[in-house]
Amino acid sequence: MSAIASTAHNLHLTKPRAVLGATVMALVANLILWLIGLASGGSFEMTDQGKVASVAPGGVITLTVVPLLVGLSLAMLISLKWEPIIRIAQVVGAVFALGTIALTIAADFDAASTVTLALMHVVVAASVVVALEAVRRSPSN
């Protein structure tokens, strides 16, 4: 066996690696977007019940990590008994992540914050689809 084949065999994607990898990658991407949003003049503040509330960086971290960990873990657990859930979870996860952009637009964020937060939703949607597709294609599954 060649060194390349041996290395490729040892790098197979497990379900926990997919969940954690997608979550960490999305978090890093969203934190970078947050920094770009700050540099673009975004305040990441909105008015909630008459009080100014900031959604960053704590909100960015929480609203990236929690949905990905919960959603991907649930899909992976169900896929142990019913593998077709992976395709369904790709669609549902992407639709939820993209659909919640409407909530960001409805809030009274400034333009830079709104655009940046919307892009963060796209990152989460892409992470769901890519992670689940990687698991679906992995030979260990």
UniProtKB/TrEMBL annotation:
One matching Pfam family: DUF6069
Chain coiled-coil ranges: none
Alphabetical UniProt keywords: Membrane, Transmembrane, Transmembrane helix
Name of the protein described by the UniProt record: DUF6069 family protein
Bilayer-spanning residue ranges: 18-39, 59-78, 85-106, 112-135
Species annotation: Rhodococcus qingshengii
